[in-house]
Design goal:
This protein is mainly α. 19% of the residues lie in helices and 1% in strands. It is built from 19 helices and 2 strands. The radius of gyration is 53 Å and the shape is flat.
Length: 514
């Protein structure tokens, strides 16, 4: 094909420069109008024998696209396909002067791949509403004010951040403005007001946000109480007075002090009068103690109920009142003066209630709790000489402790389980040799390792009582003749070593041994 082009070309073409000759021979077709000036310079877009270098040459010319890819902005930086694919994947060339090298399909284009996602009304308007003729798409303005300047009724008095109040679904449907982000958060009735109730004439900046700046005409005090309206009035209800006595003074109103009128204590007025804050200064006439207990009424009395004495025993002493101790009257423990020191151990008060009569059980708190003397027993048996295991752990205390003198209980198995001994003491009193506390019937005795007589053959399945007839485990002979003399048909003529002929597997299985 190349030879054909050479011979068919006019001689004037063959005498042109090398670039023209290369373009004449290799160019598959005219480039698009935008690239026309580079048509004869193939090296501007192509690198010999290196197709991968073509993208580098493209981005050297299209620096704005290169910047988008690098910063991950715009379509070429956000679109997964555009940011990773080769330029020629989407932008082919050499298809004629009128070829649309951009090849943008407006119907299928995903605007989410740009710096401006289409939301609300923006999603349904025509592209030409924002993308004007002869303006590259990338240069289209992205701020509200750039497009909606002519629709701004505030004349820029609220700035250019339209999105603070308006939303894209409907320009006339305002979204809630975060007034809390300003120096004047809207509270109470201020939340329900229309904007123009305060911002008349599109005025959005005020020299002062004090109450009197708006409510001076409604000040029934005519300025005599100053300009701090919020000290007594709230934004929720102007007529409901709410003076924070605790925050504004050194005397917080609590309990019954909340009910009386201000004049009950402030006899000489609200501004110049500063009454004493001691209880005695007001309640001297109500003191039934006639001053014998001093003037610190708050040590026992509270502002809620004067007739119900209250003394914080937990904080004022080193012995907090817990459980039923809280309901005991002061005089039940303090038989003399309230200032007399008392012993704090249980026995100092409860020695007459001690039913155990044991010198080893002097600390009542080991078992009893002040929340209930009889119902909250809690003794850690693990710390005693007899830790509770297995069935012992769930047995009632009275199963072993027959009386309240707990120290008198025996700790040998036989002492409690003599009636359960199916062996009638024939195996001794060391019940734990076979039995364990988990269950009396779960017994296990290692006859082979503990005794000198290994159980083998027919001896394995025998009951213990088959051999142990006496009063203890050591009364059984260890020789065959000791148990089987009555079975000896030889009547002793062959001696007592039965094992020479007989085996433990079967007495009738005779096997002579020299």
């Amino acid at each position: 094909m190349i030879l054909f082009i050479l011979f068919a070309a006019p001689a004037s073409k063959l005498n042109a420069g090398s670039s023209d000759l290369k373009a004449l021979i290799l160019m598959p077709g005219p480039v698009t109008e935008a690239h026309r000036k580079e048509e004869k310079n193939c090296d501007a877009c192509h690198s010999r024998f290196d197709k991968a270098a073509q993208d580098v040459l493209c981005l050297e010319c299209h620096k704005d696209v290169a910047a988008d890819r690098s910063d991950k902005t715009g379509f070429h930086g956000r679109s997964a396909r555009a940011s990773r694919s080769s330029c020629k994947t989407c932008h082919g060339d050499h298809k004629g002067r009128d070829y649309d090298i951009v090849s943008l399909d407006k119907e299928l284009f995903n605007h989410d791949d740009t710096d401006f996602m289409l939301q609300g009304k923006h999603a349904v308007i025509r592209c030409e509403s924002c993308h004007l003729d002869n303006t590259p798409y990338r240069e289209t303005a992205g701020d509200c004010f750039d497009c909606h300047r002519d629709q701004d009724p505030h004349r820029e008095s609220l700035g250019k951040e339209c999105g603070n109040c308006h939303e894209s679904h409907s320009w006339h449907k305002r979204k809630i403005f975060d007034h809390g982000a300003t120096s004047f958060p809207l509270l109470g009735h201020h939340e329900t007001l229309q904007c123009n109730a305060c911002h008349a004439g599109e005025q959005y900046r005020f020299d002062s946000t004090e109450c009197v700046s708006c409510h001076r005409v409604r000040d029934v005090h005519l300025g005599k109480f100053g300009q701090r309206c919020d000290q007594c009035h709230s934004q929720s209800e102007w007529r409901d007075l709410s003076f924070d006595h605790g925050a504004e003074t050194d005397f917080e109103l609590t309990g019954a002090h909340l009910g009386p009128s201000c004049q009950s204590c402030h006899f000489a007025g609200m501004v110049d009068d500063t009454p004493s804050t001691s209880c005695h200064s007001c309640h001297k006439s109500s003191d039934i103690h006639a001053g014998r207990h001093g003037e610190k009424c708050e040590s026992c009395h509270s502002t809620s109920h004067w007739d119900e004495p209250r003394f914080d025993h937990d904080k004022e002493t080193n012995w907090p009142l817990i459980g039923e101790h809280r309901d005991v009257s002061c005089l039940q423990c303090h038989r003399g003066s309230l200032d007399d020191a008392l012993q704090t151990d249980c026995m100092s008060c409860h020695h007459s209630d001690d039913v155990h009569q044991s010198k080893g059980l002097q600390d009542c708190a080991d078992c009893h709790r002040p929340t209930g003397w009889r119902k909250t027993l809690n003794f850690d048996h693990e710390l005693s000489t007899f830790p509770l295991e297995g069935m012992h752990a769930i047995a009632p205390c009275q199963s072993c402790h027959k009386s309240l003198e707990f120290h008198a209980a025996d700790d040998n198995c036989e002492d409690c389980h003599v009636t359960d001994d199916a062996h009638d003491s024939a195996l001794g009193q060391q019940c734990n040799s076979c039995h364990n506390p988990n269950a009396w019937s779960l017994w296990l005795f290692d006859h082979d390792n503990i005794t000198d007589f290994t159980l083998a053959g027919a001896h394995t399945d025998l009951a213990c009582a088959s051999c142990h007839h006496g009063d203890g485990p050591k009364d059984v002979p260890g020789s065959c003749a000791g148990c089987h003399s009555a079975d000896d048909r030889h009547r002793g003529n062959f001696g007592k070593d039965c094992g020479r002929c007989h085996s433990s597997e079967s007495f009738g299985d005779i096997q002579w041994q020299n």
